[in-house]
Amino acid sequence: MAITELRGMDRIIVPIKLEPGTKFVFQCGPGVPCFKLCCSALYLPLTPYDILRLRDHFGLTTDEFLLQYTEPFILPRSGLPVARLKMRDDAEKTCPFLGEEGCTVYPVRPLACRYYPLGLGIFRNRDEGRNEDFYYLVKEGFCQGLDSGPEITVDEYRKSQGIPETEEPVKEWAEIIMKKESLGPVEVPEKSLQLFFMVSTNPERFRRFVFESKFLEIFEVDEDTLSRIREDDLALLQFGFRWLKSVLFGENLVRRRKEVPEHRKVKPL
Predict the structure, then answer these.
(1) Could you tell me which residues are beta bridge partners of residue 124?
(2) 155-186 burial, b if ≥16 CB within 10 A, otherwise e?
(3) What's the superkingdom here (predicted)?
(4) Distance (Å, rounded) from C-alpha 78 to C-alpha 57?
(5) Looking at the domain assignment, is residue 219 inside a domain?
(6) Is residue 135 part of a domain?
(7) Distance between CA atoms of 213 and 206, rounded to whole angstroms?
(8) pTM for this prediction
(9) Domain boundary among 130, 154, 175
(10) Domain contains 162
């Protein structure tokens, strides 16, 4: 599949598995003729950490940020609900953070933007009982930065874009999505979908759910964890991901108390 076969908004995923040491060629910036064309008509899901960083960048509450900049979106393969970036209501459907000189939130840009033109996949190695990351290349017809820039390895590119530090906090979240995808077309209870969406998008609401509902009557949470998640949104996210794994898949990461009325339980998938 040669890039010369693509035109305009044509898009392909090159069916070649890339390793951290695999080299590719890419450049992007004001000097590239197609600069900013990839910042329109995006279907860009935001990770929970993306939401925290962008929210704090603008000095907004989570509710304010979600209302102004996002819309609900169902991930096609997993069927799980997330927040995606809401495009401007203009002819090109441009990113709300796009300015004349490029990205206006570049230091806190979403993880998906950092990865472009790479994509990330997670493979479950059942023999070794662990997940393995792999990468692939996305080619779009308008992109003139491919095959014309400096040669760089996948690992070097990831580091240059600040990917490891923005990806690590949401690795468990990505594992939840991957596991749901692997289950195929399994119907998910509406309550479970609501819980996933709350943890994935709104730490303020999740915190209220933990401390102001009957949550702590149902689940055992040690005092050290409670102290951290009262104040630290990132710690709250990590706790939320472990709790979702327990609720959705029956993993014993956040334990239920022994005496829990049956009607309060959420059945695992």
Answers:
(1) 131
(2) eebbeebebeebbebbebbbebbbbbeeeeee
(3) Bacteria
(4) 30
(5) yes
(6) yes
(7) 10
(8) 0.88
(9) 175
(10) yes
Q: Does any domain span residue 180? A: no
pLDDT in tens, 226-244: 999 999 999 999 999 999 9
Q: Report the SS3 class of residue 98.
A: strand
Same domain, residue pair 197 and 116: no
* Token reading at 70: 């996002």
229 and 167 in one domain?
A: no
Residues 143 and 201 in one domain: no
Q: Which amino acid belongs to residue 153?
A: T
Q: How far apart are CA 234 and CA 55, in angstroms?
A: 13
Question: What residue numbers bound the domain in which 158 lies?
Answer: 3-175
Mean pLDDT of the chain: 88
pLDDT confidence bin for 121, thresholds 50/70/90: confident
Verify that 132 and 248 share a domain, yes or no.
no
Number of domains in the chain: 2
Secondary structure letter of residue 93 according to DSSP: -
Task: Quote the Cα angle for 78-84-87, to 5°.
Answer: 140
From 142, 175, 208, the end of a domain falls on: 175
